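agent: user wants the structure for NAD(P)/FAD-dependent oxidoreductase from Brevibacterium daeguense. delegating to structure tool.
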Amino acid sequence: MTKAIVVGSGPNGLAAAVTLARRGLDVTVLEAADTPGGGTRSAELTLPGVLHDECSGFHPLALDNAFAGEADLSRYGLEWLWPEIQYAHPLDHGAGAAAWQDVATTARHLFDDGDTWAKVFGPLARNFPDTTDDFLRPMLHVPEHLFKLAHFGGFAGMPAALVAQLWKTPEARALFGGVAAHAFRPLTTLASSAIGVALGTAAHAYGWPVAKGGSQAIATATIAALEGLGGRVETGVQVRSLADLPDAEVIMLDTGPAAAADIAGDRLPPRVRRGLRRFRHGPGAFVVNFAVEGGIPWEYQQARAAGTVHVAGTFEEIAAAERQINQGVMPERPFVLLGQQYLADPGRSAGDVHPIDAYAHVPAGYEGDATEAIEEQIERFAPGFRERIVGRHVRSTAELEGKNPNYVGGDIVTGANSAFQLLLRPRVSVDPYSLGAPGLFLCSAATPPGAGAHGMCGYNAARSALAQLGEEVQLGEEARVGPRTVDGD
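agent: tool returned. relaying C-alpha cells verbatim.
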C-alpha cells in the first residue's frame, strides 16, 4: 500500500489526508501540538463553559466546494449554524450598516445605495457556485466558467478604494470596506478588493456560518473521516527535517514556505528553495478573547444580531489603519474584527456570559499590547462594554506564532495578499503544490486558493500528489457531492 505522511493537522493538512486516504493510501498525520486542528482549534480560554474559537470562526467558503462535497463531513457530526445577520459595521452615533444573506433585504437597509449593492452582489451571488469552481484552484488553469470568472475578476482585480466609490453613503462604503480589510492590504493597491468581493458575495450566496460546538468540530469531523478510512493522527510529534519521518511515497507539508524549505533541505532543487524563501508574510493579528456578561451593548442595533462585527469606523479610517500596519506603524484606532459566534450557537455561552473573539490588525511582529486599543474601539460603538467584561485571554503576535508556527509574525492568513501572491503563491509554478522533488508537496494556506478553513489547499495538493503517482483522481462512486446552494435560514 502506498504510504503518505502529512506534517501538520490544520484544516488543509487534514483535507489532504482525507483526500489521499479516499484513494487508498495509508495516511499518517503528524502534529507538533497536543491538540490537532491548527486554525480550527476551540477552547474555554476565559471562563469555564465559555467556548472560544482560537482563530477561524466563520467559514463561508467551506460549504460548497470540491472537498466539502467529496468528504461530506456531516456524516461525521459536523453541523453548520447561521446568525440572523451575517456581518455588521457600526458607525458613530448609532449609525451603521449590515449584510443579511438575502441581497434584497440588505439592499432595503442601505437606502440610497441599495440598488447599487443589489446590482453588484446580486449577479455575483447567483454565479458564485460556478465562480468558486475556478478561483478555488490555482490561477494557471483553463477556466470552466470563463465569463462568470471574468465578471467576478472585474471587481476583484480593482483597488478596494475604487470599488468603494460605487456607493455614495458612508454606511455602504464602510460595509464593503470591512470585508475588504480581511485582506490585511492597503485598500488602494491593485486587487485589494479581491478578498472583500469574495467574502461579501459568499455572505449572500451561503452566509457566514459557524460550526456547532466551535471550529474544533471541523477538525474533529475530518479526523473521524480519516480514521474511518484507516488513517491516523499523531500529536506531540515535532518534525524538523525529512530525516524525522518514516519512509513514505508522499510527504505533504502543511507548513509555511520557509519552514518547508527548512524541513526538506537539500531534497529541494535550489530554484524551488529560493522561491519558497522569497515568499512574503503580511501584517499580524493581536487577539483578545472576552467573556462578556449580557453581550455587547452596540448602539447600532443590527450589530446585536450579527455574527461578525467590523469595528473600524468609516471607509477612510479603515484605509488609513490598513496603510499604517503595512508600513510597520501601529494605528491609534486599528481595524478590529469581532466574532459573536454564540448568536448562532448558544451552546458556547455559560448562562448569560458570552464568548467574544476579537483581533486587531497590527504590524508584523508587533511587540506592543493592543488590548487597550481593541477595547477602546469596541467601547466607541458600544458604550458600557467594558463594564460587562468578566474575563479576558490575550495573545500577542509572538504567542500566535508560538502556538502555530505557520502564523509568522502573527500573520494568521499565511502570506501577504499582494496582487502577485494572490495569483502566484507560494512561487511561480504551473503546479504550486509540488516542491520539485518526487513525493514532496506543500499543502498549507500559503498555496492556492489561500487562507480560510475550506480545505481546498490540501485537497488541491493531494490531487497533485495523486497525479504524480499516476492515480485516478476522479471521484469514486461512493463520493457524495454536496448541494450547490445552501439555505442560511
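agent: one observation worth passing along. Residues 114-135 form the longest helix (22 residues).
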